Amino acid sequence: MPHFKALSLSLPELPCTLSCKENEFSFLELYSSCVFKNYSLLHTTSKISNLKPKEFFLTLKQNDKNAKEFLVKCDKSSKIAPIEIAKNALMLLASNQKVITHNLNQQNITPQFKLPFIKEINDFLNFEELLQKEGLENKEIWLEIGFGSGRQLLFNAQNHKDILHIGIEIHLPSLEQVARQIGLLQLNNILILAYDARIFLELLPKCSLSKIFVHFPVPWDKKPHRRIFSNAFLTQCARVLKKEGNLHLRTDSYEYFLYSLDLAKEFKNFEISHQKNQQNSITSKYEARWNRLNKDIYDLYLLQKEPLNIATKHYDFSFPKITSSPLLTPSFKKQKFVKEDYFLSLEDLLINPKGDKKILKISFGDFAYPETRYIIIDENLKYFREPPLKTEANFKAHNLLCSLLKEC
Ligand SMILES: C[S@@+](CC[C@H](N)C(=O)[O-])C[C@H]1O[C@@H](n2cnc3c(N)ncnc32)[C@H](O)[C@@H]1O
């Protein structure tokens, strides 16, 4: 993370606007933590001629042992892309300090992938708009979950050119490797993203997909709650698959196959069929490994007879009017609330010098893919930048927070 360490820190009087290269930065307000000694957030915005203004925090930490020394960093939870913007903001601040060390001249080690077919989760928040922007509306869509080395995804994209192929993979190096191949093959019918597929499905509109492939998912025999297949996952598949759409599981784990079959039997909308040791048109890296060991391979097909009629949920992440709450005072303490399928952790409260503006830092949502967000508190409460992802777990956590704030 970009940072500099300085011997003493003298900030300009806030708010102030400073310029560097083609960036104009406004340093707005400093908020001091109620939890961590000598730790503050500096609310910063940047304006670049042809880009939308960006908002982020810089963190300031005074050394506990040597009170004169400060570490100034780009805050991880409000990080922006490209990171060079935050580096420029740090350079501006560093220019008036006695800097001891910094990494502001370092080039990013992982190249910034700005390839048009690599998408972010936020790009999918308005799916129809995304398809329209990409000129891909009215296309049939296939989704591959956990594409790994990408052999199946690339094969499908090369052999089914009129289909839009979406690939989702949580392992970033795999995604980057497949991105290179998509570029080399000049495929224009693929979108890929690095995210947890279980959460991604919740964001898709109903009846949007024709096929879903889950090939050789990690069996997680000792931690079944981490499996991709679950009742909640199949419910989402039943919602997003079109009539006559198909979910295809291919696995070398007999246990995973039986477990998925049992789950599927609970769904009346699926017509179930399965095969053993069926040849696939392409052999994935994992399949090749199991073939060498002569392992049996199981295919499970779930054909959508009638899409599940689950009403589309409209999650409202606004806050009620809260004039005061004992939760939001300088005596703030970290607290964690763990529920069956979500959690909420109140991480920190940061307060400006006048005491009329506060920032609440929370982590919340799904255990596998938690979000960390800031909530800006002045006369109203509002999520910093955009609201959380519209998932059930996030919404439950948001509601819990609202009731905690009201309760006190
Ligand atoms: C055993 S590999 C199989 C890869 C590929 N499908 C194949 O057949 O070679 C499982 C892949 O699923 C990915 N994965 C696991 N959980 C995931 C999730 N929740 N969302 C997206 N990808 C996931 C892993 O990172 C891994 O690349």
Which cofactors or ions or other ligands sit in this model? S-adenosylmethionine
> At the first level of CATH, what is the class of the largest domain?
Alpha Beta
The CATH topology of the largest domain corresponds to: Rossmann fold
Task: Count helical runs.
Answer: 9
Low-confidence stretches: none
Secondary-structure element string: EEEEEEHEEHEHEHEHEHEHEHEEEEEEH
Give the integer mean of the pLDDT values. Answer: 91
CATH superfamily of the largest domain: Vaccinia Virus protein VP39
Q: What is the count of structural domains?
A: 3
Report the principal-axis shape. Answer: globular
Helix/strand-derived class?
A: alpha+beta
The largest β sheet comes out as:
12 strands, antiparallel
- What is the CA-atom radius of gyration, in angstroms? 24 Å
| Termini separation | 37 Å
Question: What is the CATH-assigned architecture of the largest domain?
Answer: 3-Layer(aba) Sandwich
Fraction in beta strands: 25-35%
Approximate helicity band: 10-25%
Q: Count all strands and give the number.
A: 20
Binding site for S-adenosyl-L-methionine: 144, 169, 196
Family: Belongs to the class I-like SAM-binding methyltransferase superfamily. TrmB family.
InterPro entries: SAM-dependent_MTases_sf, tRNA_(Gua-N-7)_MeTrfase_Trmb, tRNA_methyltr_TrmB_bact
Protein name: tRNA (guanine-N(7)-)-methyltransferase
